[in-house]
Automatic annotation (TrEMBL):
The keyword Lipid metabolism does not apply. InterPro entries: N_methyl_site, Pilin-like. The chain crosses the membrane at residues 7-31. The keyword Transmembrane helix applies. Keywords: Membrane, Transmembrane, Transmembrane helix. This is General secretion pathway GspH domain-containing protein. It holds the Pfam family N_methyl. PROSITE patterns: PROKAR_NTER_METHYL.
Amino acid sequence: MIKHQEGFTLVEMLAVVAMVSVLSTIVFVSLTTTRSDQELEAARKLLSSELRQVITWSQTGKIEGSSGNLPEGYGIKISPGSDAYIIYAEFDGDKKFQSTGSDVVISQNLLIDSDSISRVQFESCTPATPKCDVYSQINSGELYINGTKTSDLQITLEHVSSGVQSVINMDRSTGQINVP
């Protein structure tokens, strides 16, 4: 009587291990990409919300709480390559934030996870620019970038690990903030 041995051959085992490895790699890359997309989306939503708040304060003429006075306008200042930004009330009339002037810092914030977002850049600011400053003037709603009047605004966010970029656009004429 001949006994048949049942089991798997070495080739069959190697084929199964190879398939499991390929599938595991695909799942890992997919999950990593999804996480970086979510982090970027969260930062984009946060910055869009803060920008909307600054515009609303400028349009309604919000009185700045700590001073009790009506500022010239409100703004957001971000240093290129940084993950932090400040929201401020502008009082000295130069249409940009001056830490040594009469401008008042309302809040200092981080974009969600400081290890996730590598770059925040305005269209007219480059990494060589010491700061990117968006300012909205009270009543007129005019936008200024680093003290210079602009018609539209584009802010680019970039994720550290994936290099994926996300853009926030603002149409000054309508005040609409678009997140494509």
